[in-house]
Amino acid sequence: MSTRWESETPPVRPAFSGLAWLRIALRAMVLAVLVFGGLAVLLLCRLVERPLCGLHRPVTPHITCFVCRNALRIMGMRLSVTGAPLTMQGAVVANHSSWLDIFALNAVKRIYFVSKSEVAHWPGIGWLARATGTVFIERNPKRAREQTDLFRARLLAGHKLAFFPEGTSTDGQQVLPFKTTLFQAFLMPDLRDQLHIQPVAVIYHAPPGADPRYYGWWGDMGFGPHFLATLAPARPGGVEVIYGAPLRVADFSDRKTLAAACEAEVRAAHRKALV
User: Fold this and answer.
1) pLDDT tens digit string along 179-213?
2) How many structural domains is the chain composed of?
3) Rounded distance, CA 181 to CA 191, Å?
4) What's the rounded Cα separation, in Å, for the pair 183 and 197?
5) Which range, of 45-49, 124-128, 192-196, averages the lowest pLDDT?
């Protein structure tokens, strides 16, 4: 079971002015057209893509990238990218600060997130997650073999998987210890020599004068208020995505050493970017 990270002092956000509400309304309307229009196009494409290509998705991931990249633009958030996304078979692992992470990571590279199975049933978000090819997993040891087979199939189809090993989100000012469980799936004897794991640091820069934790979304924070706060600033902040060097899975003896190496890379890049 995942444990929520909590902070004793949540960020203080000023009340929205009339102009802020106008910005929220305009950005929200354009964002809704982009996201739900993109979803409609994606689903139509899948009607053809799925029977012809099966697990392979030669077209629809490009739609996801387009939507996420332009969603950040509509929100006014600058996107800065350092390093090159993974091109080999494998996965990316990143620190987790906000629901915005999904937009930031998808804006750069076609990836498929690994998520807990409950998300598939969430209104709105669940529909988007299923449509974009999210891999849903259950915390049930009895289904471990089945889920490993699912990972294998997706990796062999060329999918770049992505997951957040911290197991929860934070205020964006730190990196929590990585949980090692999911790393075991990449140590499959028949695939470990082919797979790489790429550590990725995601760093948010707050709007000028705002709390550095402005874009962090954690604990029992509601999505609605955080979404409104994201759309409100006249001068929004930005998000920085730093791609580290891919780590060859075969170079590590077990999941703990692999997770520790990924954590160290993410933590170092994250700390450096915040200085």
Assistant:
1) 998 898 899 888 899 999 999 999 999 999 999 99
2) 1
3) 17
4) 9
5) 124-128
In this structure, what CATH number is given to the domain that contains residue 259?
Answer: 3.40.1130
Q: Domain residues for 121?
A: 18-274
In a domain, 6, yes or no: no
Note the pLDDT of residue 173.
Answer: 94
pTM above 0.85, yes or no: yes
- For 164, residues 6+ apart whose C-beta sits below 8 A from its C-beta are 93, 94, 95, 96, 101
Binned at pLDDT 50, 70 and 90, residue 8 comes out as low
In Å, the largest CA–CA distance within the chain is 60
User: Is 267 inside any structural domain?
Assistant: yes
* pLDDT tens, residue by residue, 97-120: 999 999 999 999 889 999 888 888
Domain for residue 5, yes or no? no
